[in-house]
Amino acid sequence: MIILPELHEKTDAGTVRAPGLQCDFFEGFSLVLADTERLREEAFRLRYRVYVDEMKFERREDCPGGLERDIFDRRAHAVLLRHNASRRYIGCVRLIVADPLDAAEPFPFEVAAIDQFARGSSVFRETPRERIGEVSRLAVINEFRRRKTDQEQGLYAIQELERYAGDVRRHNIPPALGLVFAAAWLGIEIGLDAVFVMMEMRLARLLRTLGLNFRQVAEPVEYHGLRAPFEITRDALLGDMSPRLKVALELVRDNVTALSRADAPVARAARAAH
After folding, report:
1. Does the N terminus or the C terminus of the chain have fewer Cβ atoms within 10 A?
2. 59-110: per-residue pLDDT in tens?
3. In 3D, which of 30, 28, 26 has the Cα closest to residue 39?
């Protein structure tokens, strides 16, 4: 199990907060790479709770054993969000990579909006499929969402935040934004050149306040609510990031790179096929 640490610096005087990152998120939560079967099942159970029980996006009969999963999970990294005080896993996200046996196999975003991506994204058209990924299946349980009855915005906020956008500016990052941040950065660390995601316009605006400048590829489409296709490239992520996050990324990078290229889903699946 790899845990992405709280964003602190070590000094001779002890541990101090990273400059500019007065952020409750990293005090209250830990990001955990689901690199064992037990942890992956934790992610599937969380997805079942959010996507089946709470949001009604998926049907119970399609999710035996209380696990929400699909064909894309065999080629995906899953990241869990753990609430430090209770030690519970309260959220998750996944990063899907190209199918190692057939790179032509579609990503979920291609199923939902292939025409929009093909027309609007030169990155999608020109980047080898082995070098792209998709962030998807973002889920945060209802206790940590801003409004339990808010099906769309509910995925992206927590109850404690009264002024959502204002709190992001004050560095109180909601759980879902931390998960998207981790998944996008993980994609860069395992060698991808671009990461795609279907998300609400509001979430994209909030991510920009953190320096994550996802570019909108096309107009929104109906996809579990109205969502638009977005992309972020390696150059955009590394070049446009706000100074306060660059400090954080250096600290996160040390742990993310512990997941070597040989242990990535693409490599594991390729070895299994031989």
Report:
1. C
2. 999 999 999 999 999 999 999 988 988 999 999 999 999 999 999 999 998 8
3. 30
- Let me know if residue 267 belongs to a domain: no
Asked if residues 84 and 30 have their Cβ atoms less than 8 Å apart, the reply is: yes
Q: What is the pTM of this model?
A: 0.77
Backbone φ and ψ of 165, nearest 5° = -65, -40
User: Is there a contact between 188 and 253 (Cβ–Cβ < 8 Å)?
Assistant: no
Residue pointed to by tokens 């998300």? 199
- Domain CATH for 251: 3.40.630.30
In order, the DSSP letters of 67-133 are ----GGGGGEEEEEEEETTTTEEEEEEEEEE--SS-TTSPPHHHHHHHHHHHHH-HHHHHS-GGGEE
Nearest to 144, CA basis, from 166, 160, 163, 167: 160
Residue 88, CB half-sphere, CA atoms under 13 Å: how many? 9
Closest CA to 103 of 272, 266, 273: 266
43 versus 153: the higher-pLDDT residue is: 43
Domain count, the chain: 1
Per-residue pLDDT tens for 18-52? 333 335 566 778 888 898 999 999 999 999 999 99
